[in-house]
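FAQ: What does a multi-protein file look like?

Like this. Sequence, then tokens, then the next protein.
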Amino acid sequence: MQYWIPKALAVSVLVSLSGCSVFINEAHNERNYRTHEPVKAPESLSQPAQDPVYKMDVGQYDNNPEATNYRPPAQVLTVAKGSWVEEADKKARIYFDKNDGIDDLDVFIWDSIQAVLADNNISATQQNKMQGTLETDWYAIVKPEESWLWGDDESVDLERFKFTIEEKSHQRTASLTAELIDFKGDHTLTDLLKQQLEVRALNQVVSEFDYRYRQLEVDMRKRQGIISLEMGFDNKGNAALVTEQAYDTVFDRFSGFLERLSFTIVEINQDTGLITADYNAPESSVWDSIWGDEPTELPIDEGQYQILVSKTKQGGTSLTWMDDKGETLEPGTMNGLQQALEAALIQRGIKI
């Protein structure tokens, strides 16, 4: 599966956002300060009067021209659907509300943590799924190519983290906390650096949670598609595609479905239920394959077709496909068409 591109993009956005500002602020460089002397009047004029109440001493500044690596605390990013944080929370912690499609919220979070460990090629040294605690092995939360966190120094430090999942009694909300439990490297572990590393580790899990839930939403949309198009017969005994959906529902939406499959609607007859459409095979491109949106090509020739939408005796709906001369397509062609339409419904998550 070529899912790495959107996932890599999501992770890169999180890294850039959570790192806060990485630009050098030159506002306090000593060359930007100017000493203002009192106004000097020409010899032919008297010095202007100056109220001693408002007299100010000339400012003197002793600035270090060397750049200092000051950065604000990192932010927990609530990019995942249903996630939120408490204001003034001193811990690297985030809350998740249970979204549609998630059976067990704590299990979903747990699996997201495991996926992050797999991405970093590490395992857990201690874990208790029932208690919702997991301690990681050593790994570098800041990779060599991301050494901007350390400034110009490219040395890499290693960390171990403890993740804790706490689920509310109603099981609709759970929190995830990241805690730095061990650190080794050349840098001094300050409170600020500790906070930045913990938030960075937490945001990796949030990113994974968001990615996994987006995948789940796609699967849910696919399952919502009406895929009960089966081979059958219309009321006249012609080979047709049959669905249990009501006639009004199918007729109102089927033309829109055809347009997504490279059909151009020519005419819709509300009285007879006849839809006339031209089919042109779609052209695929490299970008379609990269983004997973390759067009569906149907096993029929290009040209004009007539689709008769009718009520069946069982209360469902039949779709009788005919060519431009009004002749019903052969059963073999209909069988291939049924499989292609069913695959298109599943792939695109379309609901007729």
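And here is the next protein:
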Amino acid sequence: MILLVDDTPENLISLKKVLESHNFEVDTASSGKEALKKVLKNSYVLIILDVQMPEMDGFEVAEAISGYSKAKDTAIIFLSAANTDFKFIEKGYSSGALDYITKPVSINLLLLKIKTFYRIYEQSRKLNEMQKTLLAEIETRKNAESKKDEFMSIASHELKTPLTSIKGYMQLLERSIDKGDIEIVKKHLNKAKSQIEKLNGLIADLLDVSKIESGKLKFNKQLFSVDTLTDNILEVIQQSNPSFKIEKIGNANCEIFADEMRIEQVIVNFLTNAIKYSPNADRAQLRVDVVDDKLFVSVKDFGLGMLPEQQKQVFEKFYRIEETSHRFQGLGIGLYISAEIIRRHDGEIGVKSEYGNGSEFYFSIPINQPQ
């Protein structure tokens, strides 16, 4: 938008009509004070400013505008009939103007200058947008690199821990075998097996992330019973965590066409997280339902809970809640993989949580997916 500033109404009206006839949006001010008020409220591409005005001349207005952070880069053209000497023109430029035109004004020349300023403004705006985009991209890449470095450190530690344990149990096994103590051998074997399973799970998660990023995460969809799946999951989880009670609420009473192994992976992730992040609780709830031809599954725990800003990031790759990361092991990729699995089933995944009062992770997927 262009702001015309002139204390002569006829000049304002005639120039406004000319500019509007060339499809320019025009605003007007009949004094320097009025112009300053408008500059504070509105954004202008160009200000065409009369030099000779009562109370506050054009030079003073231009100097005041240059002091406004909002308008300091706005282009100013001076129009003057009386002050045509070089010293006035020089003062105009030093006051912040980009051009100084003497009257009588050549409308064609003025229009050319205005179009040039608009072109420069548009180029400058695009350059600023590009600069902001580039800065944002640089910041994103820096954050990604930082997260990647942090993840590599965590992954190394997480993988090394079970390997160290397995090595220790192997040494204990050698000694126990030499002594012929079968019960101790069985005990060490079970513990080593548990660590191998943990290591296998970590490696599987890392491979899944790699497949997601390369677009090679495959799905084997087929019909299966949701209730049979959830009952089997609960049986295994309860055997591994006998002191933690998981209550199942509802049933699906249907078969669904999906990747059974991947849906199991999501539910197991929800349940193991519920147990892990509920150090002072001994129960959780698994809810299964069908709503509007969609399977709805949720796991509600009574553990630590999350803050709103943490809930927004919890499904991001490598995200770990800072205040709990030193207390609980993990790579920060389980929920990221779960979100991708549900997305690839045309579903939705989310969380409801209150800090200090637990969390409820849920997903829904269409029952009648194309076969």
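Q: Is there any per-entry metadata?
A: Some entries carry free-text notes. For the entry above: The chain has eleven helices and twelve strands.
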